Amino acid sequence: MADPKGFMTTPRQEWSRRPVEERVRDWDEVYVPGALLPIISEQADRCMDCGVPFCHQACPLGNLIPEWNDLVSREDWRAASDRLHATNNFPEFTGRLCPAPCEAGCVLAINQPAVTIKNVECAIADRAWEEGFTPARPPERLSGKTVAVIGSGPTGLAAAQQLTRAGHTVAVYEKDDRIGGLMRYGIPEFKMEKRHLERRIGQMLAEGTKFRTSTAVGRDVPAAGLRDRYDAVVIATGATAWRELPVPGRELSGIYQAMEYLPLSNRVCEGDLEVSPLSAAGKHVVIVGGGDTGADCLGTAVREGAASVTQLDIYAQPGAERDEDSDPWPTYPKIYRLSAAHEEARELRTAPAADADARLFAASTLRFTGDERGNVRSLHLVEVDERRLPVPGTGRALPADLVLLALGFSGPDREDGLIEQLGLALGPRGTIARDDGFATNVPGVFAAGDAARGQSLIVWAIAEGRAVAAAVDRYLTGSSRLPAPISPTDRPMTV
Predict the structure, then answer these.
(1) Collapsing DSSP states into helix, strand and coil, what is residue 84?
(2) How many contiguous H segments (helices) and E segments (strands) does the chain have?
(3) Which pathway, per its entry (predicted)?
């Protein structure tokens, strides 16, 4: 604890964002380049080095947060990087994409603004790359065992890196043409530039991990044959089966799933397309769903030049402060948060029908109506009460030329036939069933991440990847020294 009074003398200061008018004209990350390092040592000083650091319990990775806060406050960046990477394979991803449940569990957050843990993490990761503190770590010797990892999202990549470093020969199979899963084609460039992803892929290649892109297991490669070729298989395909909105007019043209829309804008940034075929340019856009994916659609539509963008959230607008009865510390509270995309929508007034930013809260979609050519033109909605029942007399219509459904995911996609070909058992929620050791009902086949856990956060995905790697290593060799931060039954802290 470098400054025992830091939490009393230093106010919370976050990484500043670029001006809205500037950043909506490009796809670069929203933060001011270079603005984080000058403030981060003092922010790390705010950490109280608690006797019982609840930030550890709030983070499924078990990140050693007080330790690397202290090291950053002393500007010992190499040691801070070592402590951070001891529990997290990809801190530059979580430092940008994780909603920071660790900050909700910060002891300081009981009555003050929490330590800027997420910003400190990102600063360490970026400094580590700049200073060369993250070299490739190929194994000293090979085990002679082979592992196939299906899926290259954060779970698959974490599992692959851990197993490669343990000495196993690992091949990652990805159905898309590039590695990264939803981090590649689901997360917009303005939230995380893909250079961060490319850098980690390069590190993994240097360590010996092999990648097989444009290969859908079950369709391009028989799943049973893959199982026969490898000593173990890890399924980390994610939960990509999107939820539908079964209301009248859903069949109209112009209504798409968020994950049909977002990948196309990412391909524009990759240089594959000049313009997205689903571009929001000049259109009245309505996003159904109030979560992070909906916010990603919002920021994307604003950058594409939409005429208007409105986001519907079926939940009532939360308050600005934690409700100690329903969301007591140290659980992750449901409070009003203003993401970069919502800040942009508020300043640009993209949704005249909304109150503060682009969101309409406590709003439920009733139906869609279209023109004579079958194109959607309006979304009809109604306000709902706390039981999600319609409030009489509150119905209205919004102009809608493009509707994006961001309603979450129900489980792994079964279109490729992977689950059926392997004969995998499913749980009651449609996710892949597994035992306490991440093993499925098929010998030698393990499941991890959203495909087995259900839709979750990136920090849980990486924790799953690290934990399943330890389980596979134990299966192959009889024991394992790899860390296993969570079990399959662990869940976020709740009341």
Answers:
(1) helix
(2) 19, 15
(3) Amino-acid biosynthesis
CA torsion angle 295 296 300 306 (round to 10): -30
What's phi and psi for 142, nearest 5 deg?
-95, 150
Cα 166 to Cα 144, 229, 285, 313, distances in angstroms? 11, 20, 48, 45
Polymer length of the chain: 495
Give me the torsion for CA of 185, 191, 196, 201, rounded to 10°. -20
- Strand-strand pairing, 396-399 and 402-405: unpaired
b/e 72-98 (16+ beta carbons within 10 angstroms → b):
bbeeebeebbbbbbebbbbbbbbbbbb
Provide the pLDDT for residue 1.
59
CA-based nearest residue to 63, from 3, 104, 130, 118: 118
Cα distances (angstroms) measured from residue 193 to each of 27, 30, 92, 305, 475: 8, 10, 11, 20, 37
Token pair for residue 449? Answer: 């991440």
Which amino acid would we find at residue 237? T
Residue located via tokens 């892929």: 201
The answer to whether the beta carbons of residues 333 and 376 sit under 8 Å apart is no
Residue burial 164-189, b: 16+ Cβ < 10 Å; e: rest: bbbbbbbbbbbbbebbbbbbbbbbbb
Local structure of residue 109 (DSSP, 8 states): G
Is-contact 28 299, C-beta < 8 A? no
**Which residues, listed in sequence order, are joined to residue 213 by a DSSP beta bridge?**
none
The CA–CA distances, whole Å, from 319 to 54, 336, 345, 374, 426 equal 24, 6, 20, 40, 38
Q: Is the peptide bond before 138 cis (omega within 30 degrees of 0)?
A: no
The answer to whether the beta carbons of residues 94 and 88 sit under 8 Å apart is yes
What's the rounded mean pLDDT across residues 227-242? 97
φ and ψ at residue 221, rounded to 5 degrees: -130, 125
Torsion of CA 242, 248, 250, 252, to 10 degrees: 180
| Among 376, 392, 393, CA closest to 288 | 376
Give residue-wise pLDDT tens across range 88-138: 999 999 999 999 999 999 999 999 999 999 999 999 999 999 999 999 999
C-alpha distances (whole Å) from 101 to each of 109, 151, 314 are: 11, 25, 23
Task: Decide if 311 contacts 298 (C-beta within 8 A).
Answer: yes
CA distance 188 to 1: 37
For residue 404, the cross-strand partners are: 256, 287
Q: Is the dihedral of CA 193, 194, 200, 206 positive or negative?
A: negative
Rounded Cα distance between 400 and 308, Å, is 9
CA distance between the termini of the chain: 31
Q: What is the DSSP string of 260-282?
A: HHHHHHHHHHHTS-SS-TT--TT
